[in-house]
């Protein structure tokens, strides 16, 4: 995408986006509803034409081509299967429209059925399949013509939680086995972090950060990314000095910490630091980085969240993994300390 914009009347849905998606990559467009991610996907597919800018595939401008003229296929949120056709007929439909010989279609369909673990189900009506199986048929149909790019528009949103997690693994496996570039749209951060080689986080029609799941989670580019991806603690402070890639920050909550500097230079004197809840631990009052009063204690099964009310009026969440021999939790209302791990804190850009 080169300086792509899309307007609907006076509404600017996509605002001057430039993105490079690599061959054989699982790339995710992530953001809240209305951020422009689906509009961007539809411009790659050809269902929408850009108001400005270009879509290039292998250095060829495809911006003005019709959807059926592009080596791109789409898997929709509602699967869009043909209910009057069998599983095999659905998978082979695109190949039939391309005029492929029957023997070639049968061979591809057999290969696709095996790829999506539906061997022996080719003659079944799709209406007899579960939601997860229908999703696999939709994937097989889109993959059968061997597109250069497969677009996936929130294809897992209709599935229940357990099946959705299973299909996340399946999608990643399919992408690795086929070597086709996948461009995936979702508002679900867990889906993005689980499957993606790289993620573009979008807000208000713009790309806020592009990077691997670890880069975006550990080093968010700005407050929006930090707040949207996972749970995050925000601490206000002032710059007390810097050296190399680290800085000393005097926190309003009390204490001085070392924090990573953002890319692009030193921050202003007044700044915001982010700390993930799992990068901190509870300590005895007076022995941590700063103190507070323990508020809510929330048990999640795999871990427990401790909400600490800080002396400056803020709240800090500490996440502790639950083990069979886990330490006893202090009582609500007790004074506690919060200790930050090495490299836990990152300074946000202004």
UniProtKB/TrEMBL annotation:
- Which part of the chain is the ABC transporter domain? 1-229
Whether Cell membrane counts among this entry's keywords is yes
Identify the gene encoding this protein: potA
The top EC class, named as a word, is translocase
**Which GO molecular-function terms appear in the entry?**
ABC-type putrescine transporter activity; ATP binding; ATP hydrolysis activity
What GO CC annotations are associated with the protein?
ATP-binding cassette (ABC) transporter complex
* Catalysed transformations (reactions): ATP + H2O + polyamine-[polyamine-binding protein]Side 1 = ADP + phosphate + polyamineSide 2 + [polyamine-binding protein]Side 1
Name of this protein: Spermidine/putrescine import ATP-binding protein PotA
Keyword terms: ATP-binding, Cell membrane, Membrane, Nucleotide-binding, Translocase, Transport
Q: Which family does it belong to?
A: Belongs to the ABC transporter superfamily. Spermidine/putrescine importer (TC 3.A.1.11.1) family.
Supply the EC number(s): 7.6.2.11
- Assembly notes: The complex is composed of two ATP-binding proteins (PotA), two transmembrane proteins (PotB and PotC) and a solute-binding protein (PotD).
């Amino acid at each position: 995408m080169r300086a792509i914009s899309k307007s609907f009347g006076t509404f600017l849905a996509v605002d001057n986006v430039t993105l490079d998606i690599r061959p054989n990559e699982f790339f995710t467009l992530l953001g809240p509803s209305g951020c422009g991610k689906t509009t961007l996907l539809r411009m790659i597919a050809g269902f929408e034409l850009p108001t400005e800018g270009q879509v290039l595939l292998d250095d060829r401008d495809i911006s003005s081509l019709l959807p059926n003229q592009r080596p791109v296929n789409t898997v929709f949120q509602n699967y869009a299967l043909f209910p009057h056709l069998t599983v095999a007929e659905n998978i082979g439909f695109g190949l039939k429209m391309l005029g492929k010989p029957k023997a070639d279609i049968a061979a591809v369909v057999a290969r696709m059925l095996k790829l999506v673990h539906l061997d022996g189900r080719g003659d079944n009506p799709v209406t007899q399949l579960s939601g997860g199986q229908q999703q696999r048929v939709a994937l097989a149909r889109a993959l059968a013509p061997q597109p250069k790019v497969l677009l996936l528009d929130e294809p897992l949103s209709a599935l229940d939680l357990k099946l959705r997690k299973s299909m996340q693994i399946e999608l990643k496996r399919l992408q690795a086995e086929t070597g086709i570039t996948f461009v995936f749209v979702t508002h679900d951060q867990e889906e993005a972090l689980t499957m993606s080689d790289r993620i573009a986080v979008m807000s208000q029609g713009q790309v806020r950060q592009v990077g691997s799941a670890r880069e975006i989670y550990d080093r968010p580019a700005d407050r929006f990314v930090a707040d949207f991806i996972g749970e995050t603690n925000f601490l206000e402070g002032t710059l007390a000095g810097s050296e190399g890639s680290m800085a000393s920050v005097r926190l309003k909550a009390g204490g001085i910490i070392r924090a990573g500097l953002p890319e692009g230079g030193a921050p202003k004197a007044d700044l915001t630091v982010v700390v993930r809840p799992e990068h901190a631990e509870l300590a005895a009052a007076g022995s941590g980085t700063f103190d507070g009063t323990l508020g809510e204690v929330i048990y999640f099964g795999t871990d427990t969240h401790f909400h600490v009310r800080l002396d400056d009026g803020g709240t800090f969440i500490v996440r502790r993994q639950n083990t069979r021999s886990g330490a006893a939790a202090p009582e609500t209302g007790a004074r506690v300390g919060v200790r930050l791990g090495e490299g836990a804190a990152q300074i946000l850009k202004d």
